[in-house]
Amino acid sequence: MQSALRGGGGRAQACMAQGSRLRGPGSRNSSSATNPRRRLSVQAQVLNLMRDLQDEFGLSYLLISHSLAVIRHMCDDIGVMQRGRLVEAGDAQEVLDAPQPAHTRALVAAVPDIRHVH
Question: What whole-number distance in Å separates Cα of residue 82 and Cα of residue 27?
Answer without folding.
Answer: 38
